[in-house]
Specification:
Layout: H1 8-12, E1 27-30, H2 35-39, E2 43-45, E3 47-50, E4 53-54, E5 69-76, E6 83-85, E7 91-93, E8 99-108, E9 114-124
Parallel strand pairs: 4-5
Antiparallel strand pairs: 1-3, 2-7, 5-6, 5-8, 8-9
């Protein structure tokens, strides 16, 4: 019986200490909101990226960094504005009215140009307080 143990590179990707030639396109993977907080009217959305590290670094000079870096833009319910997050942590939204909502999450480069995006739709329940 041969058991395979994934390497560190298999799990966390290439070392940030070595430039990556011909980087694969950046990917954004977004999960639906976590059920337990959502049942209490709070929206917790987990996401991850591939081939891009989420960091608080901005500007044209950062376009030439390897491995690639960027951040996310978050738009709630087609608002004409979005907010920026560069933490790489779970997105938390509170105070949304009960009902159907959608959140657009865009993976953006250091100059705020969107690379790819995912939209999550969910219903915030009526919660007795």
């Amino acid at each position: 019986m041969d058991s395979y143990t994934p390497s560190a590179k298999d799990i966390i990707g290439s070392s940030p200490l070595i430039a990556i030639e011909n980087e694969a396109p950046a990917k954004l993977i977004v999960d639906p909101p976590l059920p337990e907080p959502l049942s209490q009217g709070r929206v917790f959305i987990q996401y991850r990226t591939e081939n891009l590290r989420v960091l608080p670094v901005f500007g044209k000079g950062a376009l030439h960094v390897s491995p690639r870096i960027g951040h996310i833009h978050i738009t709630v319910d087609d608002a004409p504005w979005h907010f920026v997050d560069s933490s790489g942590e779970t997105i938390i939204l509170v105070g949304l009215k009960p009902g159907l909502h959608k959140v657009l999450i865009e993976l953006a480069d250091p100059t705020h140009k969107a690379i790819t995006s995912e939209t999550v739709t969910f219903t915030v329940p009526h919660v007795k307080r």
